[in-house]
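Think of the structure tokens as a kind of shorthand, similar to the way a musician reads notation: each symbol stands for something richer, in this case the local conformation of the backbone. In the example below we present two proteins back to back. Begin with the first one, reading the sequence and then the tokens, and try to describe in your own words what changes along the chain.
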Amino acid sequence: MQWMQRLKQLTNEFHKKMLKVYADEYNTLKFSKVDAKDFTIDGTERSCKGYQTVVTKDNVDHVIDGLETLYEEDYQELMDALDLTAADFVASMRDKGQYAAIDIIPENDVSFEVQFLGGDTRMQNMILLADDEKVVEVQGSNEGSVETITMIAEENDTVKFTYDSDSGDITMEAKYDEESYNFAGNLAVDKNSMVITIDDLGSASEDVSGSITWKKGAQFEEVSGDTFDLGNATEEEWQDLLHEIFAAMLGGF
């Protein structure tokens, strides 16, 4: 399919341009050495070299300007929301040329550290800490065609996701406080269509099943209804919208 090949080509070209925006600004940063730290990577205790740099608001502005050029959108609101000071330190610990951890240390704010614990890929097993307290741990594994990712948050809230690349089967189990939520289904993709089959979606008291199909040649129809202002909606309006969506899903399957 020539149009699909062209779309893939354009997507790859855009991705390369976006990476260049980040890489060009990264190459302007000046790093200095800091004390080494010990980390456990692939089950082995290792001493990792440390480097530190300063990411200023100007650096962020340059990246956003580059993204504006690519997307042709105004990112001024994002720049204002970030409101970075001129002293946001990033210290990276490296082991054999790869990242072992990245520390983000804003001035007068919460500091963060991402530790890369190794695995089949660098980000397969990670820990995110805030002020030295563990916030989220990611545990990943691959067995044949089955990939499993488990995220463990504070208070032992967990999300477990599995995907079989051979069969397309997907499962997800989420536990939060005393509640548990499950998803089981299948993802089937070919050059003309994509089908998501939902066998089980919901909690112990409510379940949804059905399927969603995207395919070449589908006809689009205009729909009528009230306009929802995403940017100015109140919390109550958001809750009402989500309630309507969930009620429609339960009634539609």
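Once you have a description of the first chain, move to the second and do the same.
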Amino acid sequence: MNVEKDYMNAPETGRHLLKCVWTSHPDHERRCELRIPAGVVDAAWQEELELNRWHEGFFHFAWRGDVWLAYGFADGRVRGVYCPEHRAERDARSFTLDSPELALSA
């Protein structure tokens, strides 16, 4: 997770804006409207690939003082981002599901 480096200076121009993929599961009637420049996300993923941290998968990165979550592919493409608020909710759920305490209580 590269949260030490803030991608504040990454290029904000480029292909388009990526919108947070969060929806109000299970009805999906509400959606998050936060967006981030694709160039910012692409720059963060390229650095992860160059550092050989990941080949494909979720990665955290900082932008404008907040931590975002995105999914990157080995070919350099990025698909899907979670804004800071919904990233935190997702991370909390993931931590709970992976928690050994949960397995012990089942």
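Compare your description with these statements about the second chain. The CA atoms of residues 56 and 73 lie 5 Å apart.
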